[in-house]
Structures are given as C-alpha cells and as structure tokens.
Specification:
The structure holds two protein chains of two kinds.
Chain A lengths: L15 H31 L9 H4 L2 H26 L3 H31 L8 H34 L3 H34 L1
Helix pairs in contact in A: 1-5, 1-6, 3-4, 3-6, 4-5, 5-6
Chain B lengths: L17 H23 L3 H9 L4 H29 L10 H36 L7 H19 L28 H29 L12 H33 L12 H35 L6 H15 L14 H13 L1 H15 L8 H24 L1 H7 L3 H31 L5 H27 L16 H31 L38 H8 L12 E3 L5 H17 L3 H19 L6 E3 L1 H11 L4
Antiparallel strand pairs in B: 1-2
C-alpha cells in the first residue's frame, strides 16, 4: 500500500490508508448505531400494538434465547481471541478461531431461523400485527447483519490462507472483528429490551 | 389505459397521456442520439476509461454536477407545469392524478437529485483541494457513492414512463402512501430508488468525515480549515447522523408496501405518525445538509471578492455546529397541527426559533466581511449579494411558521410553499450558482462568460421573486398547497398568473445558464491562470484544471488563508528537487457495475417481481466478492511526468 510503513504499530495500523479504513469503519458503526436505534424506537412504539394477536410473553421462549445469547457472546469472545492471535502473528491459531467464530455465528442463525418458525406456528407471522412486524424487522435486520458477516468472514479467511498475514489482511480481519463485536452489542440490547422485557412485562 | 404489466393492476409502459407520450419519444430519441453519437465518434472506450471507471474526486465531482444540472432541468419542468396548471381557475392542462405525480416528483427530484448532487459534486471537487490533500480518504467508495446516487436517481426518473410516478407527495405520508390508498407501483419507486441513492449519500458522509480528520495538509488544524471545508465536514456529520433514520423509514415503508407488514397502516395496530416522526427526523436535518455547504460557498465567495478575510471565523464555526445540533431537535414543527399537545409544540417551537440566532450570526458575519472591502461585482458575488435579502425573507417567514399557534393558520398553505422556496432557492441554488461560477476554472480551465452570467443572474433572481412572492399572499388568503385547481372568484387568479409568468422568467434564467455553459465550452479563452480571482484558499495553489495528483508537493499551512499567506510571502514556489513520485489509486469498473446490479434488483423490487430480484441479487454478491479480492494497489506517477506537468503551468520551476 501507499505511504510510509510504521512497523512499531500493530500490523493493521501500519499504513496511513489502513488507519483511515479503520477510522472510516468506526464512523460507519456510528451510522449503524443510529440505524439500530431507529429500529428499536419503532419497536418500542409498536410493542403493545398486538391487534388481538400474540404478544411477546405468548411467543418468547427462554431456552432458544439463552442458547442464542450464549452462541453469539461466545463468538464475540473467540473473535477477540482471534485478534490476540493476530497480534502474536500466529496465523494458524487465528484461522482456527476465525472458523470457530463463524461456526458459532452460523449456529446462532440456525437457532434464530428455528425460532422464527416457532413464532409463525404460534400465530405470530410478520403481517399479524404491528408488534410482530416490528419484532421480525428488528430481529431480521440483526440476523441479516450476522449472515452478511459470515459471508464476509469467509472471504477474509480465504485471503488469509492465500496471502498470509499482511497489513492488509490484518486490517480486514480487525475491521471484521469490530463489526462482529458490534453485532454482539446490538444483541445484548435485543436480549434485554425485546426478550427479557417481553417475557417479564 | 392499457395494461401491459402483470396482474397487479398497473401497466408497464404508461400510456394514454399525450405529455408522457411526448416525453417517451423524447427519451427514446435522446438515448438513440447518445448511443449514436458515442458510436459515430468512437467514444465508448473514452467514456469507460475516463468517466465510468474513474476514482478521481474531481471527475466524480463533475459527474455529480452534470447529473445535478440534468435533474434540475427535470424538476424545473415539473415546476413549470404546476404553475401553468394553476395559472387560471378550472385549468385543464393536468388532471388531478397527474398533478399529484408532478408535485411529488418535483419535490424529490429537486431536493435529493438536484440540490444534493450539485452540492456534493462541488464538495467533491473542492474539499480535498482546500485541505491540501491528494484525494478523498476512500476513492473507490467515492465512485460507488456517485453511481449509487445516479442509479437511484435514474430508477426514480423512469417511473413516469414505466409503471407510473409516485403520487403521495415528497413526504409520502401514511396512510396515503400505503398500499390501501395508493395501490399502484409508483410509491414503490419512492421506497426503493431513494433507498439506493440514500446509501450512496451515507457513504459520501463517512468518506468526507475521514478525509477531513485524516488528510489535512500539515499545519492545518481544524480551526485553520477554510469555511467551506468546515461546512462540508459538519454536513457530513449530519448525513451520518440523519441518513440511517431515513434508511430505516424507507425500509419500513418497503416492508409495508411489499411484504404486508403494519408499521404505518392503522390496520393491525400500525401508527402513521411513526412515519412522520422518522421522515422528519431525517427530513429536517436534510434541510441543513443542503444549506450548510451552501453557506460555506458564500463564505468563500464573499471573502474572496470583498478582498478581506472572513469576519468572525470562530463564531462562524460555532454557529455551524449550533445549527447542526439544533437541526436534530426541531422535526416536530412539521406537524404541530397533528395533535402533539401544547408542551411538545412549545418545546419544538422554541428550538425552531433558536435556529434563527446562529443563522443571523452568519448573515451579520457576511455583512461585516463586506464592510470596507473592495468589492468586485462578479457574477459569483452577485449571487451572494442577492442571497442575503431573499434568504432573510425566507428566514423571517420561517420564524412566523415556527410559532405553533400561528402555524394553525399557515399549515400546509401556499405560504409554507413560498417560505421554503425562499429558503432553499437563495440558500442552495444561488449558492450553487455562485460556487459554479467561482470554481468553474478549477474544474475546466476556463471561466464562464460574465456577460451571459449577468443575464442568467438577473433573469433568475427576478423570475424567482415573481414566482414565489405571490404565494405568500394566496397562502395567507387560504389557498392550500397541492391543490390542482380552484374556482374563479377567489381572488387567486391574478397572483397565480403573475407567478406563472415569473416561472417562465425563471426558466429563461436557467436557459441562460445552459447557454453560458455551451458558449464557454466553445469560445471561452483557454489556459486561464491557476488563480484567476486572486483567492485565498489552497485549491487555487494548483493548476486549472487540476492535475490528477492535485499537489506536486503537499503544502504547509499556517493560517485559515494558507494560499493568501503563501502569495504574500512568496512561498508558493516549487523546486525541481522537491518533487517525489506520487501514489494514485487505479480506476475500477466495479462501482459502476455493482451499482447497475443494485439498480436492476431495485427495479424488480419496484414491480414486486421477487424471483427475478433474488436472481439478480446474485450479481450484487458477485460484485462484493470481486471487491473483497481486489488487491490493486494503484500506481505511481513518475518524477519526470510530474516535472513535465508542473513546468507547463508554473512560471517558477
């Protein structure tokens, strides 16, 4: 890449362009915060508008939610370990942890899809009420982000295998990890304010 | 009306209206002309390598401006048709449905597809140059932003010949914009096309924020940035804060219209007011997204032609920041009359009126900049001068509208229409014109004709006032907006006829601008000096038109008026020994092709053809994969080539 390489910094920060990419991604995450905040606000407005259909208390199931929370939080942890291995220049360990992270994400998605079929079985389809519309859209947007993250992660893994650990692949991996942690943070909000609140209140 | 489309009750090609038939023929002939011309002059390769694949911020800026002028024409024709339709009572030029479509597309086209690209285009050309940078932070993303905007705009524009235009107003309030009341596909265009263009804009916002934070020339602290760079920066922050809200609002609209959800429809518990809140949470900051860069342009123009530095630089900066902050907490003033209650209305009334304070500060700063200046009355400067009184009328009527109690009288009348045109036309369009005349030599290496420019100026300004001033009076007289016709004897005929004549004068002003561009391309003197206005900021320190690499040597900055200092101290020179090779990014066809793929998916979604949309979505995934595996590291411009290029325009090398 262009510019001077500062080898005193971690791999992903060594060129000016890479530093800009990382900052740009942080700004993008700012936009993502606004995006999810808007979805949450819409959900809170419509949460009681069940139009005679099922409410959160009727359809939420603690077991699936806990499994999902466990899967996603663990995947965020393994993503953190992956970056630790990257800093240690251990490509193999990094790839293993990357793979585990994506598999956990895949597990999360499978459970979420299964959960959606339960919702529908219980008479809560996306068009049932304003509440279910908001619920499916919020969860679906998060789920779509996870799906996109898995596809993106696979592409980065291929590049790591092909090119080894370079400033560019390190930067890509690092940005992926930021994205992945962000999805985890969003999930914590979903877990608390959609599921727990829905089950308790 | 014939039905060529699927069984959903809409037709594929819109038929049965002579106006639309004429446009269809015109579009067909234009496409034939462009394709024929490109083939005849063997320009396809040139088009691809020089423009469709470019990642150079200056060229992307020019593409934005070109698209913006085209869309300004389209929106202008919509406006003319509206004024003709209301020029006489019981006029039978447009039917009510056609009128609904025209005021809807006029609003969207003017705000999102004319004002935005013109401003972002000028920002693209000027911002990196003012910062003393080689490029924007993410050149590839910049190209993607443009093509997403362009594809979104084109998708929106074909609506009136293919499938039918959106017709629920530019604000598309529910329940009217829902499937129940507008079952055709017109409003699907609104949801999908604006989404595509909006994502492009969001990417631009991110790009410019990083550009400003990371690519300023050495010595240029934030408080030494030129005012236009400041306004571009703050605008970008508002974009990143506000556009995701619009993204979500449009997503929810798409879900409601295409997938049977109930966000905004009263059936099954939905809430139409949610749409209003989300729309204006984006829509009001949007007003400042288009106004702030325009204020930045006026600051540069007024300072240069008054031959003085900008009065009250730091208060200017703080007023922009204050406006940005306040812009986010005023949105409810768009629906005072819809049952918010006195406490809520009072809060938003006060925040709204507060915006007049920092805006007033800016007006006074401009006036004090001119005080005791040696003012040069160039065309650019005339636009800036005309802006001040016209915009003040818009501002004062804005404060009138900001009073919640009084707004019950004005709400949704022509008074409102007059008000926001008095804000947006001086505050954005005049600024864009000032900016175009000012920066034109930077883009093309020749100046626009000043004589034709003055025709352009006078026709446009007089036409503008003639068109919109009468609306204040018919509005106070009870005429509501979006009325397609009215009975005789209400006393509105004469003002509205006057307004129509004014709109013709306005159109003549636009025509003068187009003629000016044409004339100047053919006859204007080439090889104009790199600093024709004796200006003060860094973009004038480099050649006109600017070389691909912007600056042979990145300048060092000591004050807000870096180039002015350099000229005074004689330090804008370049020694041959200082030249080093320069890295530039390679062109890429991916942004263009990826955007086309997204446009195709969007088109299928508009028509609710989900299987073709899913198949076409594979193209998007392919595009993203290609991008992910793209390790092109650009190329270097050699010292020899830089020396040669610099020698061509510099006297001192």
């Amino acid at each position: 890449m262009a510019g001077k390489v500062d080898t005193s910094l971690p791999l992903e920060y060594q060129t000016h362009q890479d530093r800009m990419n990382i900052l740009g991604f942080w700004v993008f995450l700012g936009a993502e915060i606004v995006l999810f905040a808007t979805l949450f606000a819409s959900y809170f407005i419509l949460v009681d508008r069940t139009a005679g259909g099922p409410s959160g208390a009727d359809i939420f199931h603690l077991k699936e939610v806990l499994i999902n929370t466990f899967l996603l939080l663990t995947s965020s942890f393994t993503a953190g370990l992956m970056i630790r291995e990257m800093r240690n220049h251990n490509l193999k360990g990094m790839l293993i942890l990357f793979g585990i992270t994506l598999l956990l994400g895949l597990g999360f998605l499978s459970v979420e899809i299964y959960e959606f079929t339960i919702f529908v079985d219980k008479g809560a389809a996306i068009g049932t009420s304003a509440f279910t519309s908001a619920l499916f859209t919020l969860l679906g947007t998060h789920g779509a982000h996870v799906s996109l993250g898995i596809g993106w992660g696979i592409l980065i893994m291929i590049q790591l295998v092909k090119r080894g650990l370079t400033p560019t692949t390190a930067r890509k991996t690092f940005i992926f990890s930021l994205y992945w942690h962000f999805l985890d943070v969003v999930w914590i909000f979903i877990f608390t304010f959609v599921y727990l609140k829905g089950m308790v209140m | 009306m014939g039905v060529l489309g699927a069984g959903t009750g809409h037709q594929f090609f819109v038929t049965g209206d002579p106006l639309i038939l004429a446009s269809q023929i015109a579009i067909g002939l234009t496409i034939l002309g462009i394709v024929g011309g490109l083939t005849y002059f063997k320009k396809w390769r040139w088009l691809w390598t020089e423009w469709l694949t470019t990642v150079d911020h200056k060229r992307i800026g020019i593409l934005y401006i070109l698209a913006g002028v085209l869309m300004f024409f389209r929106g202008g024709v919509d406006g003319l048709m509206m004024r003709l339709q209301t020029s006489r009572p019981e006029m039978e030029f447009l039917n009510s449905q056609h009128y609904n479509e025209i005021f809807t597309t006029h609003g969207i086209v003017m705000i999102l597809f004319a004002a935005m690209p013109l401003l972002i285009g000028i920002m693209n050309v000027v911002l990196p140059l003012q910062l003393g940078a080689r490029d924007v932070a993410f050149p590839w993303l910049n190209a993607l932003s443009f093509w997403l905007f362009f594809v979104g705009a084109m998708l929106f524009n074909i609506s009136f010949v293919i499938g039918g235009s959106p017709d629920a107003g530019w604000t598309s309030y529910f329940p009217l914009a829902g499937k129940e009341f507008t079952p055709g596909i017109g409003n699907n265009y609104y949801a999908v096309a604006l989404q595509i263009a909006g994502i492009g804009t969001l990417a631009t916002g991110i790009n410019f924020i990083v550009t400003v934070l990371k690519m300023r020339a050495p010595g240029m602290t934030l408080m030494k940035m030129p005012m236009f760079a400041w306004t571009s920066f703050i605008t970008s922050i508002i974009i990143v804060a506000a556009f995701p809200i619009f993204t979500v609002a449009l997503l929810l609209m798409t879900m409601d219209r295409l997938f049977g959800t109930h966000f905004f429809t009263v059936a099954a518990g939905g809430e139409p007011m949610l749409w209003l809140n989300l729309f204006w949470l984006w829509g009001h900051p949007e007003v400042y997204i288009v106004a702030l860069p325009a204020f930045g342009m006026f600051s540069e123009v007024i300072s240069t032609y008054s031959r003085k530095n900008l009065y009250g630089y730091s208060t200017m900066v703080w007023s922009i920041i204050t406006i940005a902050f306040l812009s986010m907490i005023v949105w409810v003033h768009h629906f005072y009359t819809m049952g918010s209650g006195p406490a809520v209305n009072s809060f938003f009334s006060i925040t709204t009126m507060l915006i007049a304070v920092p805006t007033g500060v800016k007006i006074f700063n401009w006036l004090f900049t001119m005080r005791k200046g040696r003012i040069k009355f160039t065309t650019s400067m005339l636009w800036a001068l005309a802006f001040i009184p016209c915009f003040t009328i818009g501002g004062v009527t804005g404060v009138m509208l900001a009073m919640a109690a009084a707004d019950y009288q004005y709400h949704n009348t022509m008074f409102l229409v007059a008000h926001f045109h008095y804000v947006l036309i001086p505050g954005v369009v005049f600024a864009v014109f000032a900016g175009l005349y000012y920066w034109w030599p930077k883009m093309f290496g020749f100046t626009l004709n000043e004589r034709i420019g003055k025709w352009h100026f006078w026709l446009f300004v007089i036409g503008f006032n003639m068109t919109f001033m009468p609306m204040f009076f018919v509005g106070l007289d009870g005429m509501s907006r979006r009325m397609y016709t009215y009975s005789a004897g209400l006393g509105w005929e004469n003002p509205l006829m006057f307004s129509f004549i004014g709109s013709l004068v306005l159109a003549a002003g636009f025509a003068a601008m187009v003629y000016n561009i044409y004339w100047s391309f053919r006859y204007a003197k080439r090889g104009v000096d790199h600093d024709p206005w004796d200006a003060r900021t860094l973009e004038w320190a480099t050649a006109s038109p600017v070389q691909a690499y912007n600056f042979a040597k990145i300048p060092e900055v000591k004050s807000t008026e870096a180039f002015w200092d350099m000229k005074k101290e004689g330090t804008h020179t370049l020694k041959e020994s200082e030249i080093e090779k320069i890295h530039l990014p390679s062109n890429s066809g991916v942004p263009f092709l990826l955007s086309v793929a997204i446009g195709i998916v969007g088109f299928f979604l508009v028509f609710e053809w989900f299987i073709p949309a899913a198949i076409a979505a594979v193209l998007i995934i392919v595009g993203l994969i290609v991008r992910s595996f793209d390790y092109d590291e650009g190329f270097y411009v050699s010292v020899d080539e830089i020396t040669k290029t610099e020698k061509k325009w510099r006297g001192d090398l």
